[in-house]
Target: Protein-lysine N-trimethyltransferase SMYD5
Amino acid sequence: AGIAAEARFISSAKGKGLFATKNIRKGETVFVERPVVSSQFLWNALYNYRACDHCLRALETAEENAQRLLGKSSLVLPHPEQCSIRKDLHQQCPRCQVTYCSAECKQAALEQYHQVLCLGPSRDDPTHPLNKLQEAWRNMHYPPETSSIMLMARMVASVKQAKDKEWWIKAFSQFCSKTANEEEEIVHKLLGDKFKGQLELLRLLFTEALYDEHLSRWFTPEGFRSLFALVGTNGQGIGTSSLSQWVHACDALDLPMLQREELDAFIDQLYKDIEKESGEFLNCEGSGLYVLQSCCNHSCIPNAETSFPENNFLLHLTALEDIEAGEEICISYLDCCQRERSRHSRNKILRENYLFTCSCPKCLVQADDPDVTSDEEEEGEGETDDAELEDEMTDV
Model:
């Protein structure tokens, strides 16, 4: 109800796009969407970024969150009542002890995939097939993380548990797919040069942990590569943080001027100190597959953006400009800094990470610009791209 957009087929080259079904005002929410499936990143979980195992809601209080990121257990946050975390509602799976933010999430996980994936008493057994799979993935995909083998495991488990298996297979088949050559590129991108030959090892571990005859194609070399590429192409980063929730709530407080200035100064300093200690990794991070969001094409001058203001996996698409009925809704796959760079630089990042060349109005206007990056851009080239991209994907 109340969704102001629909997916339409554009062309075989472009695939689908998302179009406004009514006039949308700047600042309006176009839609709120829950993922078909989602999962926290494995290193993120290993480093104690504690999130609901189903919806990724941050589980630490804002104060605990800040203390951990600062490495300082004595920190006290003012206005603790502005923290939205409700520990009294948290529940654990009685068999494997993974934690959920609520009884609803525990039940939803159990009904969709957790019966298949629950490790029970084998949670810390390194020889359990699922643990072997996760360990192999962690050794191939270091932070900044962009994907998780457990997203694929939850896809398989959702089909395995379902009474109507065809419904789930159809749900996954509507996500954008790539040609065999492009799939190779995506696998290479996710695993890197060092590990691209390891896809077969992952497939064998995946098969040992999860094989299902209804899905036998997913376990063949081609099918597994396609599944891998589907997640690599369509996965949307999710970021949650109880600290940022607390900051937003504090920003909204109506305070006398002096108190307001003190609080703002405290928050600014806190973020500076955290950056020194923890770098850019502030959020609980994971990824999910979203049917509508995955239809949004990229533009270097986007008219909408995604965010996670509810501190869980619910994705909000918000209009950045007025959008007229019938107009295509586009988001940017680049962060603000990357969008300001030359057309050549922007397309280099898009080609490497998303396998396409942009032809948005901004790129068309700049089509005759020289295909070189300016000197100061050259300095910014290289290592930061993935980290910046990942940061943009998971901005809260």
